[in-house]
């Protein structure tokens, strides 16, 4: 058995920030989960639908691993990434890091992990690995999935080798702090501005505040979009509220991040953004509740109400990001 010493195997709410927390605390840097999310400019929105999809998807964050790249660049961390098409080489990359006494982040498909209770393919899942023996890998996942968990080496290999949407080629990564870490407090404003700029200047109408408005137009027709609304609508609602989002499609994280920033930075623009995201959080929860209720009851009125709330959310988040861009 090989175990990295000094790992506090605690799970957080979101998978990528959980893995980042493990890697960075082992390096000596501890930040709150909302701070990790915000410094990585993690907030976004996408309304994703296509003919090949069984049901539309509402996403509230940037693409998998983009948060990690953003955070590393913003704090001057060395992000070392290994990718390969070879399962043998992929294992050697991971084992060598752990043998050297360091935890390693992995991007994989959660479907193949033994401890996952919900068997749905998701290729953008991220975990931290801190040990292995001849049968199992020792991982840190979200609190919802158990925090400190283990999965078989064969299951881990399948999870890393899976191909499909959002998957990576056996991606593993480490983070290293520079000899003199720049004060992260000085990187808050650039992180907020970058997030706001991306949100407001999204290149297509499926993204950012325009994407939320598009969702407001499309959601009222969701009962006709599926043959199994009693399954698909509650699942969509669950993904928005409870599936590692921290609540309200990641908006609770961003509200709390802005609240932490407001205690460090004296800015009316920041206070405005924080106030507006505090307004947005319960409205997103209302949307998910209405979508679930529509699926359970078949009542299209619930979806019409959800659409109206989404239009209001598009306005609120546009105004919030306008204020935050002016920091």
TrEMBL record:
Origin: domain of life: Bacteria
Pfam families: BtrH_N (PF14399), DUF4872 (PF16169)
Domain Butirosin biosynthesis protein H N-terminal: 14-142
Residue span, DUF4872 domain: 155-324
Listed name of the protein: DUF4872 domain-containing protein
């Amino acid at each position: 058995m090989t175990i990295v010493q000094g790992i506090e195997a605690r799970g957080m709410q979101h998978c990528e920030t959980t893995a980042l927390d493990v890697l960075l605390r082992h390096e000596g840097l501890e930040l709150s989960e909302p701070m990790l999310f915000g410094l990585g400019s993690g907030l976004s929105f996408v309304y994703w639908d296509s003919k090949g999809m069984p049901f539309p998807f509402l996403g509230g964050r940037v693409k998998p691993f983009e948060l990690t790249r953003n955070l590393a660049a913003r704090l001057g961390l060395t992000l070392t990434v290994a990718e390969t098409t070879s399962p043998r080489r992929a294992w050697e990359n991971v084992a060598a890091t752990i043998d050297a006494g360091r935890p390693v982040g992995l991007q994989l498909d959660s479907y193949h992990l033994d401890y996952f209770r919900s068997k749905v393919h998701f290729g953008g899942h991220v975990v931290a690995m801190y040990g292995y023996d001849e049968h199992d890998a020792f991982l840190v996942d979200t609190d919802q999935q158990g925090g400190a968990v283990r999965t078989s080496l064969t299951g881990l290999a399948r999870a890393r080798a899976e191909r499909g949407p959002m998957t990576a080629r056996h991606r593993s990564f480490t983070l290293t702090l520079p000899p003199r870490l720049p004060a992260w407090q000085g990187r808050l404003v650039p992180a907020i501005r970058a997030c706001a700029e991306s949100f407001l200047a999204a290149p297509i109408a499926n993204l950012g505040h325009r994407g939320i408005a598009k969702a407001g137009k499309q959601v009222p027709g969701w009962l006709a979009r599926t043959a199994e609304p009693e399954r698909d609508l509650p699942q969509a609602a669950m993904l928005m509220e409870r599936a590692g989002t921290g609540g309200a499609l990641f908006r609770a994280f961003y509200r709390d991040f802005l609240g932490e920033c407001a205690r460090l930075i004296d800015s009316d623009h920041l206070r405005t953004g924080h106030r507006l995201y505090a307004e947005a959080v319960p409205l997103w929860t209302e949307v998910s509740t209405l979508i679930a209720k529509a699926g359970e009851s078949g009542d299209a009125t619930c979806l019409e109400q959800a659409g109206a709330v989404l239009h209001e959310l598009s306005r609120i988040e546009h105004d919030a990001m306008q204020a935050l861009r002016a920091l």
